[in-house]
Design a protein that fits this description.
Layout (H helix, E strand, L loop, with lengths): L8 H17 L3 E7 L4 E6 L4 E5 L18 E3 L4 E4 L4 E4 H9 L2 H18 L11
Antiparallel strand pairs: 1-2, 2-3, 4-5, 5-6
Length: 131
């Protein structure tokens, strides 16, 4: 087993800088409310965008009546939404990926999964040369 070595001050500073940059690039919720007229949960993100989702798109709120999601709380520094009256917790990164993720990224994920499956089976089948 490898022995642990303490990172230098410069290495710790670089790690902290990278982590801070990555956190700043994530889309997190700043505020959220239910718009009864539109029938949408409106979520303001840390990049200034506002996105709206119907109750049917939110895990735990699919069967909610319009009166139930009155109080929506931000949790985990913007990583989640909580609707206490319905005992529903919603992950913002997961919601955005599931609802707004591009088809290109979905195809890339499918290709990666297929590639891993082929690797477990011994790799891609060899092409036969024509005589």
């Amino acid at each position: 087993m490898a022995e642990f070595t303490m990172p230098s001050d410069a290495e710790l500073a670089a790690i902290t800088s990278r982590t801070t940059r990555r956190i700043g690039q994530r889309l997190l919720a700043v505020s959220a409310r239910y718009d009864r007229r539109a029938g949408l949960v409106m979520i303001a993100l840390n990049n200034g965008a506002v996105v709206g989702f119907p109750l049917s798109a939110l895990p735990g709120l699919e069967d909610a009546t319009p009166a139930e999601p009155r109080r929506i709380e931000i949790e985990g520094g913007g990583h989640g939404l909580r609707v206490a009256s319905l005992d529903a917790d919603i992950s913002i990164p997961r919601l955005l990926a599931d609802e707004l993720g591009s088809p290109l990224m979905s195809r890339a994920g499918a290709r990666a999964r297929a590639s891993r499956a082929n690797g477990r089976l011994g790799g891609r089948p060899r092409a036969h040369k024509a005589a």
